[in-house]
Amino acid sequence: MKHSDIKTWIAQQDWSKGYAAVAQTNGISYEVARDRARRAGVTVKLMKRGRKHGTRVPLPHCRKIKHPEQLDFTQRDTHLARQYGVSRERIRQLRKEAGIAPFPRGGKANKPTK
Fold it and tell me: Most exposed of 3, 71, 76, 114 (fewest Cβ within 10 Å)?
């Protein structure tokens, strides 16, 4: 492969998935893909998987919630909060705005008290 060929090859790849994915789609080794990428100055930031000490997992703070209509309130608050990178309190507030009863704890969904 000439250097110009490598350059065009690098431009065609989808590096957002990481080196391994590129290597697999092209049938080359992980190391070769990594070296080619580094030579072209493509840096792939790899998100660390697993919760080891000191590993930061980026939260999806980018998805700001504008309207409560976007949310699926059949899921529990914690789940929604994690998904959107906001606090549980914020989710509860949105739930109130949408006029939906709080998520039932222990399956007692809005039973009238005796």
Answer: 114
